[in-house]
Design goal:
Blueprint: H1 3-8, H2 16-41, E1 47-49, H3 52-55, H4 72-80, H5 83-94, H6 99-125, H7 129-143, H8 158-171, H9 174-187, H10 190-201, E2 204-207, E3 210-213, H11 216-238, H12 249-252, H13 271-276, H14 286-290, H15 296-309, H16 326-343, H17 356-384, H18 390-410, E4 416-417, E5 420-421, E6 427-429, H19 433-440, E7 447-450, H20 458-462, E8 465-466, H21 479-496, H22 501-511, E9 515-519, H23 531-534, H24 537-548, E10 563-567, E11 573-577, H25 578-582
Parallel strand pairs: 7-8, 7-9
Antiparallel strand pairs: 1-6, 2-3, 4-5, 9-11, 10-11
Helix pairs in contact: 2-6, 2-7, 6-7, 6-8, 6-17, 7-17, 8-9, 9-10, 9-11, 10-11, 10-16, 15-17, 16-17, 17-18, 21-22
């Protein structure tokens, strides 16, 4: 194999069969990341993806409408679920899928669709199947360093739908392009704003150093897309929530849950952690800061404009389509909406929604193209070195290409993010089967109260209602909902640490509690350092003082008569019968 033949693989001078080969390889790489996670998800009966615990549990109502009756949290998460997302799960249940099983199967399908559209979109930049393969691999690696797609929640649908929108827009395929915009609105409306911003920029052209309108045919095409975006977003603009107004910046700045140690931490006194890589407030994907510049697309994505500018030396750059302008257009629009979201804080939900997803996608597209252009230039340089023999040049070119591909494929396996190794799944494992089995056997209308971290698992693993959850259940963005769950948490904590049974009984009677789940060590002062107590620092200090004086909660001294389940595990838990407590 000589270098000229090797260079053909980096250009469009390949057959249709070879293009399908590279697409097939892209899908194989995608499967190599997703299949281990898929197998892991079914390896244990009590596994549920972290975010899915809040966004999927209520969908059991599709199978049994009697589940979660008058459940505040189930009603809330059902109300905020985008129509397309909830409808897809409903359709899955109609053909026999359990929502939890469907949630575990869905990510593998989504990443395959994503891979196809990223491959096709990259081919619109540069008709090189190798570049398309590299872009697909890079984005897949990004996806499995986060838990967005694996969650099977609305955000997971950004990754197949946004590249589909870019591809059909660049191909000028009207109906699929309009369909992609509508689907984005039905599954993840924030990205419709980014898409419509790109279309607005494309209404204008810059020719002969003068700004003007695009040709009439393109104007119609883009205006139809903007119209589709307008109509799909109109219901969101007109809709009012039954859970009170949206949180304002002034209110949020005074909330512990949005502070540095809060469940929904947002406000931080650190420039990088707030503006650049904040999980909710930053512009870039958080993992890009956590692992510095270990991901190739960060640097390579920024190389593409340079090689296009120096296309006299990078000959393959001369084949890059003008459609590649979608990369800077997307970045400009993303920055604009990110800034607007900060300016109108919480009215457009969270600012990071307008940056990290679109940046992750277009930088992968850009990086794959840049890597091929630079690789082609390196092979061209080798060809020009006549002091090497032809065989030596061919060997060096093939070895270098193989090394780059090997490093690219192996690289993510040495990366760690949020204490997990690649590929990341974010699964929560239930380690208290006796508790789940007992509660699942109780009537469907029971209510379980707990401040244990385990409470977040109960709705998914038992299909029974909880009085109030923690973490992802206590979202502060709708004031009416947050005030209700916050008050419930306070009442639950106060009742659990009450020094006499009367306070606990009043709590049980007021809210109709049937069972109480506690961590066995809840009366230990060290327990008050848990996440739930960081949300209520004044209450925590008061309880610390109470325990320091030896004043134990009545529930901690209660005879084991009312104990229905006790599990000795890494962290022992106890399940109490509330009716029994009322009789004490």
């Amino acid at each position: 194999m000589d270098l000229s033949y090797l260079r053909k693989y980096l250009t469009s001078e390949v057959s249709v069969q070879q293009r399908y080969l590279w697409l097939g390889l892209s899908l194989l790489v995608s499967l190599s990341y997703s299949i281990p996670v898929l197998l892991r998800s079914f390896s244990y009966p009590y596994l549920m993806q972290d975010d899915a615990r809040q966004h999927v549990f209520w969908m059991q109502r599709f199978l049994d409408p009697e589940l979660f009756p008058n459940d505040l949290m189930a009603d809330y998460f059902q109300s905020v679920a985008p129509w397309g997302y909830s409808t897809l799960y409903w359709l899955a249940t109609q053909i026999g899928f359990d929502p939890v099983v469907f949630n575990k199967l869905l990510p593998s399908v989504l990443v395959l669709i994503t891979s196809v559209y990223v491959f096709l979109a990259t081919m619109q930049f540069l008709p090189s199947p190798v570049a398309a393969f590299l872009s697909t691999v890079l984005l897949n690696q990004n996806l499995w360093l986060r838990d967005d797609v694996i969650s099977g929640t609305p955000v997971a649908f950004v990754y197949p739908l946004f590249p589909a929108f870019l591809y059909y827009m660049m191909r000028r395929s009207l109906l699929p392009y309009l369909g992609a915009i509508v689907l984005l609105g039905l599954f993840y409306p924030q990205m419709v704003l980014v898409a419509s911003g790109i279309l607005f920029l494309r209404l204008f052209t810059f020719k002969n150093r003068r700004l003007g309108l695009a040709p009439a045919s393109e104007l119609r095409f883009y205006l139809l897309g903007i119209a589709a975006a307008f109509f799909v977003m109109l219901p969101y603009a007109l809709e009012s929530s039954a859970y009170g107004p949206v949180l304002t910046r002034a209110e949020g700045q005074n909330m512990a849950t949005l502070g540095t140690n809060g469940w929904s931490r947002f406000f931080r006194n650190h420039f990088t952690k707030f503006w650049i890589c904040g999980k909710r407030s930053g512009f870039l994907p958080p993992e890009w800061c956590a692992i510095s510049f270990a991901l190739p697309q960060i640097g390579l994505g920024l190389v593409l404009p340079l090689v296009i500018w120096g296309r006299k030396r990078f000959t393959l750059a001369q084949q890059v389509s003008p459609e590649a302008l979608v990369v800077p257009q997307t970045l400009i629009v993303s920055v604009a909406w990110f800034s607007i979201a900060h300016w109108l804080l919480f009215r457009l939900h969270l600012p990071n929604r307008y940056g990290e997803h679109s940046v992750r996608i277009v930088m992968a597209l850009s990086a794959g193209v840049a890597l091929v252009i630079v690789g082609d230039r390196a092979l061209q340089w080798l060809e020009e070195r006549q002091f090497f023999s032809g065989a030596t040049r061919a060997f060096a070119g093939l070895a270098g290409t193989s090394l780059v591909l090997t490093v690219l494929l192996v690289n993510p396996y040495q990366l760690e993010f949020e204490r997990e190794m690649f590929p990341i799944d974010g699964y929560a494992k239930g380690i208290y089967p006796p508790v789940y089995e007992y509660l699942s056997a109780q009537p469907k209308d029971i209510l379980v109260a707990s401040i244990s971290p385990e409470v977040n698992n109960l709705p998914s693993f038992t299909n029974r209602s909880i009085f109030v959850g923690g973490g992802g259940f206590v979202l502060p963005y709708h004031v009416g909902y947050f005030h209700e769950v916050e008050q419930r948490l306070i009442d639950n904590i106060v009742a659990q640490y009450s020094q006499n049974l009367d306070g606990l009984k009043q709590f049980i009677e007021k809210y109709g509690i049937d069972y109480l789940l506690t961590d066995r060590d809840f009366a230990n002062p060290a327990y008050l350092r848990g996440d739930v107590f960081f949300q209520f620092p004044i209450l925590r200090d008061r309880l610390e003082e109470q325990l320091a004086q030896g004043k134990l909660p009545a529930l901690a001294t209660l005879a084991p008569t009312c104990l229905v389940v006790e599990v000795d595990n890494v962290k022992p838990v106890q399940l109490f019968d509330a009716a029994c407590i009322m009789q004490q």
